[in-house]
Amino acid sequence: MPPIQFATPAPTFEDVWRMFQENAQQFKEDHRLMKERMAETDRQTKEHLAETERQMRESERQTKEHLAETERQMKEHLAETERVMKERSAVLSKQLGELGNRLGEFVEQMVAPAVVRLFQEQGLEVHEFFSNVTSKRNGEGVEIDLLVVNDGVLVAVECKSQLTIADVDSHLKRMEKLKRLLPLYKNHRALGALATMVASDEVKAYAQEKGFYVLCQNGEGIEVSNTERFTPRTW
Question: For the whole prediction, is pTM greater than 0.70?
Fold first, then answer.
């Protein structure tokens, strides 16, 4: 049999060596490119981390500035609120003082003469009247704005700028312990009265139902608001 003939001659040693060198060169080139890419990736990563850190520091700075500004505004607001509250408190104290003075004048100049007339209309003579009576005995206490007295009858008057149902109920309790805490008048016939600058018809009717005289400011004077059929309660 004749020998096999190859179309392409077998590579020589020089061919193999050349291919080996070319592959080695390509490997070096690929390795260089990989290093460059890794270096670029590392650079980009460091830049990204640096930018992220910068943004975080900037955000932290802005947050601190915002918190500081918020705290400053809150302090200013609290200081302003405190100032306004002090001003309002001063105004309220002044108004309460003026109201107290006016109520005192109301008792002295209008209520006392009206109760005296009330006695006189019943044929009674007024012997004494006392303002701001206070008595404490055995752990109990009572305060009366105006006490009008003769030898056998007394009228305990509670004065309010604006009369309420609660004020009526409080005066009922006051009348229940009046003679117990003022034993000097234990044999007197005690009557109750409520004097006010302002009162609704409902409150006036309730006070009358409980047996009280109701004295209301009307213009420059005081009038008795009770109906003709009214019969005062005696304590």
Answer: no
